[in-house]
Amino acid sequence: MVVGSRNSSNCARLREVGERHRLPAYLVEDAGDIRSEWFRGHQRVALTSGASTPEVLVDRVLDHLRMLGAETVREMPGETETTTFRIPLAEIQSAQPQAND
Length: 101
Fold this sequence. Notes:
The chain is mainly alpha-helical and 101 residues long. Helices cover 32% and strands 6% of the residues. The protein has a three-stranded parallel β-sheet. The longest helix has 13 residues, at 55-67.
């Protein structure tokens, strides 16, 4: 399962890696996209995320998997991500109230 945006080419490629290995592979934007039927007959779930996916979304997916019955969560070794992404200026401006002239 890949956590990230549906329009992210990075996330799409990650999902395709699973498919190439003949594994069920899903791209979810948040915990609400998860379907419990995906896990029937499976004992393990691999979870990854796109490069710019906020950690809070991954944490929410993990919480949801625990709610569905995941007993053990094991983080695999890898490089620690230290890159942060700033909110685009257009999003900040659209969130601010507009002054009426």
